Amino acid sequence: MKDEIYFDLETLRLSEEVDGGWNNIKDFGLAVAVTWDRKHEFRHWYEKDAKSLIFELSKFSRIVTFNGDGFDFEVLRGYAPLRIPRKRSLDLLSDLERKLGHRVSLDHVGEQTLGRHKSGSGLDAIKWWRAGKRKKVVRYCENDVQLLIDIVAFARKHGHILVESNHRQKKVRVKW
Fold first, then answer.
1. Distance from first CA to last CA of the chain, Å, rounded?
2. Which end of the chain has fewer CB atoms within 10 angstroms, the N or the C?
């Protein structure tokens, strides 16, 4: 799809540091977001850029995420109103959860489908950010976006992704 953008973000705070925890994701705060689209390739967005990022996302007919519906978009709602119609959101986690009946991680899908792991975790990203390793967090988030791009490309080429279920690799048919 030509008019799509891939998107992921990392936060400033953990759930236990926010009043209401997971029920108040909008207060987790934006450390960095990474987007990728054909025209601009990788771009980095920081907390001061949150409203510009929301505006930029609104320009695309498809926003590709992994848990964007349940997390990333909620974080951005802490900065400005954000309405992403379901038809514009391609949340791989939501789609896979509907098909499998349970959640899977981006790391799991990347490892099973492409033989590649993530380069860390969200908890690592917060620790690195607080330690002043901002470039490491940006690279980590960029790597997650690249993994997302590559998983979608694989799915579009082969019509499926791979997951492990009951100690066996299973093809999951997708139309992304």
1. 9
2. N
